[in-house]
Amino acid sequence: MPDDSRIEALRKRLQKDPGSIAFAQLAEEYRRVGRFDEAIEVCRAGLARHPGYLSARVTLGRALLEVGDVESAQRELAEVIRVAPENLSAIRGLADVHRKRGELPEALAQFKSAFEMASPDPTIEQIVRDLRRDAVAPSASAAAPQSAATQRTVAYLERWLEAIMADRRSRLYGAHA
Predict the structure, then answer these.
(1) How many helices (H) and strands (E) does the chain have?
(2) Rounded CA gap, 36 and 62, in Å?
């Protein structure tokens, strides 16, 4: 139970120093193991003391999205992007907000933005361009059902971006990320 021991250590650290920024790590750990309500609670308490802590705001937005509070999630993630327009986690979170709403063109625009920042891979850029051209015609309504090919491509792009972000987290935080 490595997740439980890490969570417990972070919880104790925060208990000893309620003003610590360890709240962000604890909330992210809660979110990763599916304890979304606890992640939200910890984020809100910590952000009351540290309102400019953007990674905590991203964690809050992602947890809110998981519990179905799409509007609040969008507000949190949009605030991060307002302050840090190249925050990949916030961009991906907003793409997920749009996807949950069935706003495929907006979701694809966010994913395209993230891919352009994440890697200068021309193949991926071409996939995103083709997907936007072929799957999202300007005359298509936002409510139109996604084709199976579009769904598969979006799922692939999401997995690809998550792998990049996981690699960056592990480089930044070490093996515990």
Answers:
(1) 9, 0
(2) 9
**Domain presence at residue 116:** yes
Is 98 or 118 the better-scoring residue by pLDDT? 98
Q: Tell me: the pLDDT tens digits for 29-53?
A: 999 999 999 999 999 999 999 999 9
Is residue 157 situated within a structural domain?
Answer: yes
Cβ(50)–Cβ(26) below 8 Å: no
* 40 part of a folded domain: yes
Q: Give CA–CA dist 58/42, Å, rounded.
A: 13
CB 73 within 8 A of CB 97: yes
Task: Kindly report the pTM of this predicted structure.
Answer: 0.69
Name which of 168, 112, 165, 159 is nearest 135 in CA terms.
Answer: 112
Within a domain: 126: yes
Alpha carbon of residue 125 to chain centroid = 20
Q: Find tokens 């395209």 and name the residue.
A: 112
What φ, ψ does residue 53 adopt, rounded to 5°? -80, 95
